[in-house]
Structures are given as structure tokens and as C-alpha cells.
């Protein structure tokens, strides 16, 4: 397998698309958000994307896009937030210390990997070979998951698992937690992805 970093938008989508077909029953398609600013052309060049998160119910996920990559925004339930510490002993990098500049901005280096515990914002691409993990929010035993599963994501390509903060479990092919992109809240309901207070300073 090549060591080429999985950061090419085209290659990423090729891999993610091919893996998506393997997800099978239980996968819930999430529509892409179309109401972004600025223009599609500017966005493709890497400009920040503004996303309206109003109306999201606890437990819902929406998918935005930045630089050709899917960005997941999950409004976590109080139960999901409370369950996060239960995973710590089983995680490869529970404190998000690995590659902090690449994967976890300082404001997300916490248990929930987020600015607000209620909202997870991560790039929805597996850190192994770039497949798109599927939602497995339902806790409890189920195929390909451990008996004490607390909810999270399962990568269908090689079985890597992530908790609902995007933290990878130990002894899985994926080496790292899912990437938290730079982001900031413009208001309670407006999220800017691709820029944060640090990059604005
Ligand atoms: S690409 Fe996700 S486990 Fe291999």
C-alpha cells in the first residue's frame, strides 16, 4: 500500500465512494447541506464554509463539505456526552495528544473533542486509508462491535471503530482520531468551518 498521504480531495472521494458501497443495511444517508456561503467555486479553493445548524435535534448528524471532504456535525445527546469517559481506557489517544496541529485544534483537546460538548465537528474520513465510516450511534452489542459499545462510528473497510467524539479505539488499523477541522461559532446557530479565532487573529 502506498504511503501517499490521503489528503487529495479526488483520491479521497474515490476511496470513500468505493467503500460506501460496502456499508450495507443500517446506513442512513445524510443529505449534503447546500446552503453554504461563499460560492461553490470559492469553497472549492478552500474558503471557510458557513453552516446553519439550527433545527438539529439531539442525536442527528448533518454533513457539510470543505475542500472536497465531508465534515460531520453531530448534535450529541446528553447520554452520548455522559458515555464518553467510559471509552477512555479502550482508546488509542483519549486526550488527542497525537499530531495536535494536524488533527485536533487546542480548543478541541478535551474529552468531547469540541468547543461545545453538544456538537461534534469532524472530517468524516477514516485515518487509515480514507474510507467513510458509518454511524453506529445505537449503544450495545451488535455485529462488528464490542458488547460494551457506547455508540460511535464503524469504518466498513477494515473495521476501525471511533467513539462519538471521533476518537479511535486501540488495536485498530486506523492510527489516529478523526480530524477536527478549524472551526468557530459565529452565533448559536451559525458555524464557520475552515477558520477559527486563531487563524483570524
Ligand atoms: S480505511 Fe477505515 S479501517 Fe481501513
Any descriptors?
single chain, about 200 residues, alpha+beta, three-stranded antiparallel sheet, 5 helices, 9 strands, about 15% helix, globular, disordered N terminus, binds FE2/S2 (inorganic) cluster
Descriptive notes:
15% of the residues lie in helices and 19% in strands. The protein has 201 residues and is an alpha+beta fold. Strands 1-9-8 form a three-stranded antiparallel beta sheet, with no helix packed on it. Residues 126, 128-131, 155, 157-160, 173-174 line the site of FE2/S2 (inorganic) cluster (FES).
Name the beta content range. 15-25%
For the sheet with most strands, the description reads:
3 strands, antiparallel
Classification by helices and strands: alpha+beta
Which compounds are bound in this model?
FE2/S2 (inorganic) cluster
Quaternary structure type? single chain
Distance between the termini: 40 Å
* Count of extended strands: 9
How many helices? The count is 5
Strand order of the largest sheet: 1-9-8
What is the mean predicted local confidence, pLDDT? 84
User: Globular, elongated, flat, extended or rod-shaped: what is the shape?
Assistant: globular
Poorly predicted spans? 1-29
Radius of gyration: 16 Å
> Which sequence of SSEs, written as H and E, runs from N to C?
HHEEEHHEEEEEEH
Helix share bin? 10-25%
Amino acid at each position: 500500500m502506498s504511503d501517499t498521504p490521503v489528503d487529495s480531495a479526488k483520491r479521497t472521494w474515490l476511496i470513500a465512494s468505493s467503500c460506501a458501497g460496502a456499508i450495507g443495511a443500517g446506513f442512513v444517508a445524510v443529505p449534503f447541506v447546500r446552503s453554504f456561503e461563499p460560492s461553490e467555486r470559492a469553497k472549492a479553493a478552500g474558503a471557510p464554509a458557513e453552516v446553519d445548524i439550527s433545527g438539529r435535534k439531539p442525536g442527528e448528524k448533518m454533513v457539510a463539505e470543505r475542500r472536497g471532504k465531508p465534515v460531520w456535525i453531530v448534535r450529541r445527546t446528553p447520554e452520548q456526552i455522559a458515555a464518553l469517559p467510559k471509552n477512555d481506557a479502550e482508546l488509542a489517544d483519549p486526550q488527542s495528544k497525537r499530531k495536535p496541529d494536524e488533527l485536533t485544534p487546542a480548543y478541541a483537546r478535551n474529552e468531547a473533542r469540541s468547543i461545545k460538548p453538544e456538537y461534534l465537528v469532524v472530517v468524516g474520513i477514516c485515518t487509515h486509508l480514507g474510507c467513510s465510516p458509518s454511524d453506529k450511534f445505537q449503544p450495545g452489542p451488535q455485529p462488528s462491535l464490542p458488547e460494551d459499545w457506547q455508540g460511535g462510528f464503524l469504518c466498513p473497510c477494515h473495521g476501525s471503530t471511533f467513539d462519538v467524539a471521533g476518537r479511535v479505539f486501540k488495536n485498530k488499523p486506523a492510527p489516529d482520531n478523526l480530524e477536527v477541522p478549524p472551526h468557530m461559532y459565529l452565533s448559536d446557530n451559525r458555524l464557520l468551518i475552515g477558520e477559527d479565532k486563531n487563524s483570524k487573529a
